[in-house]
Amino acid sequence: MRTVIFDLDGTLADTSGDLIAAANARFEALGLGRPLDPVADAATAFRGGRAMLRLGFQRVLGRVDEARVDAEYAPFLAAYAEALDTHSRLYPGAAAALEALAGEGCRLGVCTNKPEALAEELLCRLGVRGLFASLIGADTLEVRKPHPRPLLEAIARAGGERARAVLIGDTETDRATAAAAGVPAVLVTFGPEGEAVKALAPEALLRSYGELPAVVARLIGPAATSERDAQIGSDI
Questions:
Q1: 7 labelled catalytic
Q2: Catalytic-labelled residue, pool 7, 9, 18, 174
Q3: Distance of alpha carbon 233 from alpha carbon 231, whole angstroms
Q4: What GO biological process term is on the record, naming one (predicted)?
Q5: What pTM did the predictor assign?
């Protein structure tokens, strides 16, 4: 069974605006202003909450206090949970590509370093949760990406096999995760890193979601008759 696993932030959806807004809310509560820019710092947002907190403290205080970053992480998550889809949107064509793959009988899953409950809520609000057979978040297992186990678990829970699976991502973390798991990596070029992800030597680049079904077919083969039959059966 062909299985396609997706990263979430920066891959399926542009969530940078809401992530940065939550980080800035914490800095503002501390009397430190709003040091992060929603456009210029989008790449940092996709590296996670702690990365944004470190950047903000560095800009305002001239140094990073890891104890303070740790102390602010939970309040940041709480602020983010209160408004996680104000600005966040699926990338153009993502929903149609997911539906096309599902229509071919592909199993779909998500493997993200966002906490599982937040990922679950966001996917529901974006209207695509029902398309995914598995969801592995940062706290689902005792390890997270780039450890290979979250990806392998996402594949297994979706009912797939590593030999016919692919990971769609946007960062060095996704590339390293796929390599460690022995799975092809496809990196998107429409995130903040743009064409720079080519330097990570993924098995393929994705410049728009309209290309995804063809890229998947090239890397792990076209839909088999059994997959199409299974999909038809599930629709009856």
A1: yes
A2: 7
A3: 5
A4: DNA repair
A5: 0.92
